[in-house]
Amino acid sequence: MHSVRNLLTAAAARLGGEDGRGEAELLLAHALGKPRTWLFAWPEFAPDTAQCGAFERLVAARVRGEPVAYLTGHRGFWSFDLAVTPAVLIPRPETELLVELALARLPRERTVAVADLGTGSGAIALALAHERPQARVLATDASADALAVARGNAAKLGLTNVAFAQGDWCAALGAARFALIASNPPYIEAADPHLQQGDLPHEPLAALASGADGLDAIRAIVASAPDHLDVGGWLLLEHGWEQGAAVRALLSARGFVEVETARDLGGRDRVSLGRWP
Question: Does residue 2 have a pLDDT over 90?
Answer without folding.
Answer: no
